[in-house]
Design brief:
By secondary structure, the protein is of the alpha+beta class. It has helices at residues 2-7, 22-26, 29-32, 37-56, 94-100, 123-129, 189-202, 228-236, 286-305, 318-321, 349-369, 371-400; strands at residues 62-67, 73-77, 86-87, 92-93, 131-140, 143-150, 153-154, 159-163, 170-177, 207-212, 219-223, 247-253, 256-264, 271-276, 279-280, 325-332, 405-406, 412-413. The strands form four sheets. Strands 1, 2, 5, 6, 7, 8, 9, 10 and 11 form a nine-stranded mixed sheet that branches. Strands 12-13-16-14-15 form a five-stranded mixed sheet, with helices on both faces. Strands 3-4 form a two-stranded antiparallel sheet.
């Protein structure tokens, strides 16, 4: 009995303190969602998103993403380069702080990044913690600096390794995922290409070059989409029968930019992709809620004004209105709040309010001038409503039919 008590003693010494990046290695799922293939690829996206933030700030127009022969990843941008001077708070070079300290970065203040996807300040350090090794090279002020880390720990102090032109700036990050952490460490080229292409649609001024150097898979693909999310919609609907042309608008209000492109196709599905600061919000969020809500109310209002919905008729449901809809809703928010580090859902109430306001105004402006398009949209809702009502009637009829019972001979009877 006494032995058991000692074994299960719970006192101050049983409280563990995980220092530095130990917590990330101990509980990686808290930071990247999982240690499966999805989590593995999240490492790439974290580093790419940091480069894209430089593009959003207006300092970068080209990003190279390479799968090297040994399956390591290299991401190069021509942004300003991560600062290399000493951070007074900790007495270490800023670049080292960024890669070795959670919640360290240039995105918390108001000066460096007006819009950013990496606001949690854990992306670079988490990638470092979960890599067997990571190496960073920075071009800044005419010099090239280098530092290497292994499993999140510094191998040597930041050092100057070369010279470059003063206007030749940028950051190069190479890393190899740690097999102790991940179930598999093989990167899927198609998954990375898809994400990079998506990023190019959202950033028309950005060129992203993907290179695969693995033996037998060698390829180089350049992504540059000057028509932005309109091209995104066009490519998604390439093989589909279109009901409308692409409807597009972009506007800023209260410091939040809302950009929406959508098109109706002859299909009984809906496909709405949401983004905030270039981050794909897989589970939607307030920006998507705002768009869905205002689209539904706007179409119902027009349907009544045109006499398509009579006084006795119920409104179209949201699902009716979105029948055949393919949309991209992209917002840029100065202070986004996501649910979790993997940022799959946007949580800002003001994003919903501004999206509703801008979309409501722009939808009205568009449909007032494009009556035929409006009628085509309403016809998609009508088709959906008819099918929904027919299904409801069938269900009601089945439920209202008299029940079968078993008679004294053991046979079914009404």
């Amino acid at each position: 009995m006494n032995n058991t008590a000692v074994e299960h003693e719970y006192g101050a010494d049983q409280i563990q303190i995980l220092e530095g990046l130990e917590a990330v290695r101990k509980r990686p799922g808290m930071y990247i969602g999982s240690t499966s293939s999805r989590g593995l690829h999240h490492l790439v996206y974290e580093i790419v998103d940091n480069a894209v933030d430089e593009a959003l700030a207006g300092f970068c127009d080209t990003i190279d993403v390479t799968i090297n022969e040994d399956n390591s990843i290299t991401v190069i941008d021509n942004g300003r380069g991560i600062p290399v001077d000493i951070n007074e708070q900790v007495g270490r070079p800023a670049v080292e702080v960024v890669f070795t300290t959670l919640h360290a970065g240039g995105k918390f203040g108001d000066g460096n990044y007006k819009i950013s996807g990496g606001l949690h300040g854990v992306g670079s350090s988490v990638v470092n913690a979960l890599s067997l090794w990571l190496e960073v090279n920075v071009k800044r002020d005419g010099k090239i600096y280098n530092q290497r880390y292994e499993q999140g720990k510094v191998c040597y102090d930041l050092k100057e390794v070369g010279k470059c032109r003063k206007n030749d700036t940028g950051t190069k990050v190479s890393f190899f995922p740690d097999a102790e952490i991940f179930e598999k460490i093989y990167f899927k080229a198609d998954a990375i290409k898809s994400r990079l292409h998506e990023t190019a649609y959202l950033n028309p001024n950005l060129t992203i070059i993907f290179i695969n150097k693995r033996v037998g898979e060698e390829e180089e693909v350049t992504f540059h989409e000057e028509n932005g999310i309109k091209a995104f919609i066009s490519d998604m609907n390439k093989e589909k029968e279109k009901v409308t042309d692409i409807i597009y608008f972009k506007k800023e209000q209260d410091g939040i930019e809302v950009e929406i492109a959508f098109q109706y196709i002859n299909d009984f599905t809906e496909n709405i992709s949401g983004f905030c600061n270039n981050i794909y919000t897989q589970e939607g969020g307030t920006h998507i809620t705002g768009f869905k809500s205002i689209l539904t109310s706007t179409i119902n209002q027009y349907a009544r004004e045109l006499g398509i919905l009579k006084e006795k008729d119920n409104n179209f449901t949201g699902a009716d209105v979105r029948n055949g809809l393919v949309a991209v809703v992209a917002v840029k928010h100065p202070d986004p709040r996501f649910e979790g580090q993997t940022k799959t859902k946007l949580d800002n109430p003001d994003a919903e309010k501004v999206t509703k306001s801008i979309a409501g105004e722009q939808l009205t402006l568009f449909f007032d001038k494009n009556l035929e398009t409006l009628k085509n949209v309403i016809s998609c809702a009508e088709k959906s409503a008819k099918i929904r009502k027919a299904e409801e009637r069938t269900k009601t009829n089945l439920l209202s039919k008299s029940k079968f019972s078993i008679d004294s001979n053991g046979k079914l009877s009404n």
